[in-house]
Amino acid sequence: MSKLLYSCTMSLDGFIAGAGGDMSWLTEHIGPNPLVDEVIGKIGALLVGNRTFRGDDPHRGTDKEGKPFGGGWTGPQFVLTHHAPDTPVPGVTFVGDLDGAVAAAKAAAGDKYVNVLGADTARQCLEAGVLDEILVFIAPVLLGDGVRLFDRPGGADVKLERLSLTSAPQATNLWFRVL
To answer: Helix H segments across the chain?
Structure first.
């Protein structure tokens, strides 16, 4: 059975996107990371939030733009949204509810990971009790503003168990199990 994995690159001060959803900050921090390569090979499907799907791309203006992991991964994508586009997008299924999106992504992933992309979608998965793991690549930069890794007004006490701590030239990698 597949697991749901929230993975992202985060600034040291806790932001996964800059102010206004800007992802250009990430471009200079994309670099060789054996753990990223390993994880990409274990992904069977993506569960993507609507803002992430329609948002900024750190590969903007290159031939990698619009491709998951800059073209390093291909497969089924499920976008959680109440506003599906009128024109179909090849390889992308738009789903209007979390339960349906999770079920479809898990079925498509088989025994591989469903990789969750987007802070709000990850928060919803966490609150629904379906998020299994969190993998954060911490980039050596401070952004000061933007989209937080996890944001819940009023706070939350989410217990995690560290599975691994590794590093690469451009990141410190932290992998957790959600308890």
So the answer is: 34-40, 50-54, 98-109, 119-128
CA atoms of 142 and 139, how far apart (whole Å): 9
Q: Which class for 105: exposed (0-12), middle (13-18), buried (19 or more C-beta within 10 A)?
A: buried
Share of the chain above pLDDT 70, in %: 100
| Residue 13 amino acid letter | D
Q: Going by C-beta distance under 8 Å and a sequence separation of 6 or more, which residues neighbour residue 102?
A: 4, 47, 114, 125, 128, 130
* Rounded-to-integer distance, Cα 38 and Cα 135, Å: 12
List pLDDT tens digits, range 2-51.
999 999 999 999 999 999 999 999 999 998 999 999 999 999 999 999 99
The predicted model scores a pTM of 0.95
Question: Dihedral angle at the C-alpha atoms of 169, 61, 75, 126, nearest 10 degrees?
Answer: 60
Asked if 98 and 80 count as a contact pair (C-beta separation under 8 A), the reply is yes
pLDDT per residue as tens digits for the range 104-132: 999 999 999 999 999 999 999 999 999 99
